[in-house]
Amino acid sequence: MENNILNNLVLYRTKRFSDLVEENMLATALLTKPYEVSTVLSYVFGKYEANTLDFLTMGLGKTLVIENRQYEWPVMIESDKAITIKAAKWQGATIQATDVPGINNSPIQLWVAEKWFGPGAIIAFDDREFQARIQGEPYQDGSDYVYTVVVADGQVDSFIPPSLLEAGKQISREGSAYEEYSEEADIVNYQTPFKLRNHLTTMRLAYDITGDAFSSVMVIAMKDPASGKSSYLWSDYQEWRALRQWYETIERYSVYSKYNANTDGTTDLAGTNGRPVYIGAGLLEQIAPANRRYYTTLTVSVLEDFLFDLSYNILGTNERKFVALTGEMGMKEFDRILKDKAAALSTVDTVFITGSGQNLTMGGQFTTLKLLNGIELTLKHFPMYDNTIYNRKLHPVSGKPLESYRMTFIDFGMRDGEPNLVKVVRKDREMVMWYVGGSVAPGSGHAKSITTLRSNAKDGYSVNFLTEQGLMLRFPNSSGELICDAEDAGGR
Q1: Count helices and strands in the chain by DSSP H and E runs
Q2: DSSP 3-state assignment of 405?
Q3: What is the domain extent for residue 149?
Q4: Deepest in the core among 128, 392, 394, 407, taking most CB within 10 A?
Q5: Do 171 and 284 fall within a single domain?
Q6: Could you tell me if 122 and 174 are in contact, meaning their C-beta atoms sit under 8 angstroms apart?
Q7: What predicted TM-score, i.e. pTM, was given to this entire model?
Q8: How does DSSP assign 315-378, residue by residue?
Q9: Are residues 162 and 211 in the same domain?
Q10: Is 156 within a domain?
Q11: For residue range 109-122, what is the model confidence (pLDDT) as tens digits?
């Protein structure tokens, strides 16, 4: 594809080069000609677009500025839970399948790992039709706690089925009940939050340009789509191209970077000068692994089940609004399954068909799905997933990148007044840019006086970019992924 950028109208093939840019290299690459330029070619390599993640975080004011490389944040989970039964006895013996434990208000002993209930608490078994009351304080047996319980309904012929008392079954708090003039009470449960840790990644980019190349005129006219400014100078193009590559690289690594620190926060990866190189976890690595699922053919039921599971017991019913980042093929699959569902419902179309008489146009694309209990999904095109240069595993049928089918579901909502997805930057180091000037400097051009102070004697200058940043996904369980696992048809 690289040798056929547009079509057969291309006058000469593209050439690749990197690092130091000198005049001879430009001439070899057919990008310069004598100063008298009469006609020029349009710049055809595409426009620079704002980064998706940058827009959804920093662009919406969701940026956290810190003063340290490493950052941590607590994640609170529900303080109540079900407790697992380790063993149970009735009448001093292990319970058998034919037993009727608890009959005639007889006590049952339950061995559990935690002191989670107080005297008088009503507990429910895996089948909530069967409930029991905690009788008194538990006693300790090694590292376990032993609770004595009786059937809560007080009927002499009631009992707890032995299958609900097997090791591995669970009990949970249902309530509490006490007699008149009681002194006992149930207890409060606490669960401390756990912490997540990440650290900022320092990224850099640099380019050099000679004094001759600084003044060279290109055949190709470069037009900045943001400002509308056109330029024929190589130095302007070099700056624009460096910035574009810089932002694209930051965006890509913010998604795919892999955490490289040890449990104590150190890393064994060292740079050229011997100091440690820290790499923070990107967006995909921060998503809870349990919320990562695979599909071969996307269906409405697959999507609905995934969204319900993602929402279940995690978000309030008024907060279940997700944005799914996906490629062109993910958008296409999403549209296909919703149109199939709409057709099956025999809906009257007032959106996808426009016009009148014999001049009708059929079009439109589904991008939003609303489900029960306040669940809402909106698709956002993520061009990074479509890039064939970096995504070389291909779908065996379509031949498009498998990554283009990936759907990354992100909860962009607020939790306790804080955004769930945040861009984290080091104070004063979010975007650092500087140049090392020689005979020429960007903005001021060639030095014209012996009183002009420059950093070195080179006939040229170098430009440097540096950032120290990362991402923080506050609640990993509130995001997830659907990944196409079709057989790879081979690299590109």
Answers
A1: 7, 29
A2: helix
A3: 83-176
A4: 407
A5: no
A6: yes
A7: 0.71
A8: S-TT--EEEEEE-HHHHHHHHHHHHHHHHHTTPPPSSSEEEETTEEEE-----EEE-GGG-EEE
A9: no
A10: yes
A11: 999 999 999 999 99
